[in-house]
Amino acid sequence: MRICCAQISQVYEDVDSAFMRAEEYLASANADMVIFCEQYATGWRSAASSADAEAVKNRWLSLAKQYRVCLVGSYQKPAGDKPQNVMLVCSPEGEVIAEYAKVHLFTPGGEDAAFSAGSAPVCFEFGGMKFGCAVCFDLRFPELFREYLKEGAHCVIVQAAWPAARAADWELLLRARALENRGYVIGCGCIGYDDSTGTDYCGRSMVCNFEGRVIEDAGVFEGGAEWELDAEDAVSGVSDMRKKWGLEALTM
Question: Alpha-carbon dihedral of residues 74, 9, 3, 202, nearest 10 degrees?
């Protein structure tokens, strides 16, 4: 299985341009799964987008079907007075596999004023592996990742818009979440500069293994991280490591 993180600069409030760039990436990726960063279609800001949520969702589903790939996108799902920041997992047939609403909103940046929080972890299966879902600020809460261990996830996917000023935290936390749960963690981050907020994003999309080591790192340039794996070997490796370190008993 080939998994790619699309490390692309966000295009703020220009959905057509964002999806044009996403399609260019998909056309050349030759991947089984492609992961995009947090709120890629509209660009992340601590305010709700004016873009039509259902239209954004349908465009992700359409791209997944067109390129026959498991596509991990996102959209702002209507939920009462305030939308939710949602990770959307699309099947190669263009159907919804999973939706995860970000549980831990970025309160230091005021995200909680514009969005409503999710309430539960979400797992999905693809290619013989079980994946957990997390979004950006979730990474600072080990309890969520321990829930994914309990649910038997072999890998957790983290979408993010992570500032370059805290790039050291990004790597540290991805590696820690992988090490403490003895599973893989994939972090997909955007790159570029938002002149509206003065935020420079770090990129550094990466894959960490069950020993907490970085095995793929996209660095600070546009492009992405690519991970070629044998799913059967990855699953057995996680299982063996959890058994060795006494974590297997925690899984359901």
Answer: -100
Mapped onto helix, strand or coil, the DSSP state of residue 34 is strand
Structure tokens at 192: 């570029």
The helix/strand/coil state of 48 is: coil
Q: What is the mean pLDDT of residues 190-197?
A: 90
Q: Helix, strand or coil for residue 57?
A: helix
Instruction: Report how far residue 193's alpha carbon sits from residue 245's, in angstroms, rounded to the nearest whole number.
Output: 42
Helices (H), ranges, the chain? 15-29, 53-67, 111-114, 142-150, 167-181, 231-244
Name which of 4-8, 35-39, 69-73, 194-198 the model is least confident about. Answer: 194-198
Find, among 64, 88, 65, the residue nearest to 76 by Cα.
88
Asked if 24 contacts 56 with a C-beta cutoff of 8 angstroms, the reply is no
Total number of residues shown for the chain: 252
Confidence at 64, pLDDT banded by 50, 70, 90:
very high
Neighbouring C-beta atoms of residue 149, cutoff 10 Å: 23
CATH code (residue 218): 3.60.110.10
HEC states along 163-208? EHHHHHHHHHHHHHHHHHHCCEEEEEECEEEECCCCEEEECCCEEE
Contact 40, 7 (CB under 8 A): no
Contact 118/111 with Cβ under 8 angstroms?
A: no
Q: Which residue type is seen at 137? A: F
> At residue 154, what is the residue type?
H
- Provide the domain count of the chain: 1
Q: Which domain holds residue 224?
A: 2-250
| Per-residue pLDDT reduced to its tens digit, 8-23 | 998 898 999 999 999 9
- Indicate if the pLDDT at residue 89 is higher than 90: yes
